[in-house]
Amino acid sequence: MQGFIYLIRAIGTDRYKIESARSESAIASRIEDYNKLNSLYPIELIHSVPVLETSCCISIQIAISDFRDKTGWFELPDDVAELVLDEMDNYSPKLAPMDKTAEAVAGAIVSPINLVMRGYEYLVFNANPQHLFAVICFVVALILLARPFTDFSQSTDSQREPIREELMN
Question: What is the pLDDT at residue 59?
Answer without folding.
Answer: 87
